[in-house]
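Cross-check.
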Amino acid sequence: MAISASMVKELREMTGAGMMDCKKALTNTDGDMDKAVEWLRENGLAKAEKKAGRIAAEGIVAVKVSDDGKKASIVEVNSETDFVAKNEVFQNMVNAVAAQALATSATDMDGFMSEAWIEDSSVTVEENLKNMIAKIGENMNIRRFEKMEAANGLIVSYIHAGGKIGVLVSAEADTDSDEAKACLKDVAMQVAALSPKYTSRDEVSQDYIEKEKEVLFAQAKVEKPDAPDKIINGMVMGRINKELKEICLLDQVFVKAEDGKQSVGQYVQSVGKELGANIKVTGFVRFETGEGLEKKEEDFAAEVAAQIK
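Predicted model, tokenized:
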């Protein structure tokens, strides 16, 4: 029986399977739609659906930077186990996801997942993921992506511990020298190590600071109930300043500073001065694999005991 494009489209809409898989299913079942659905289930799709409920909190972060260094993407793709995260097939797929993210026009995950897959336009990103789940045998999830652009500067990336943490740092710069890139790589390593919340104090909302003042003022009053408000206010501002130095990247003490005092902002400024160039860090993105996700607790002793019973 001849398999028409409309039949393939109908089966694809019914099952979410890839176009080529649908065509193969219909060919093997002589065009019987119900049997084709069953064929797909028996040959991997049902497995992917079953695995979709399992926790995927391992995986890796990958980045992709354009050749001119002015655009970049960062993605997190999760797997159930670290073993699969180290699998070359999985890692190649994640790198392709990063390339897809660099080229995408999507602004959210739904749009991204519905795009044609960069390595096979006959399937979507979501369909390719389902195929990978069936192939590898674990649940996987493309959790998030983000893009950066630095039209008047450059972007530098850093991957830590084989993909456990990924960082992008953007900067306005009138040089793309190796020295400038090395400087920004140091900044990216700082972001990976100390996980700041903001690039500079300019990004911290006044509402946040006012709320912190209220909380810290109440705490200080408990500590020193007899102290005048002027003293209390001084204590509060000192504590806020200390907190801002911890959460703002450019205010953090540079971890590689020899004197233990130089801030990240001062370090970048000093490198720019040495190069006779302007370098200004404008933003960063930091992804850590599995952050905020519930991780599966393995109890192998209990599993073995249960099997013995």
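The longest strand covers residues 140-149. DSSP finds twelve helices and eight strands in the chain. Passed to J.P. for a second look.
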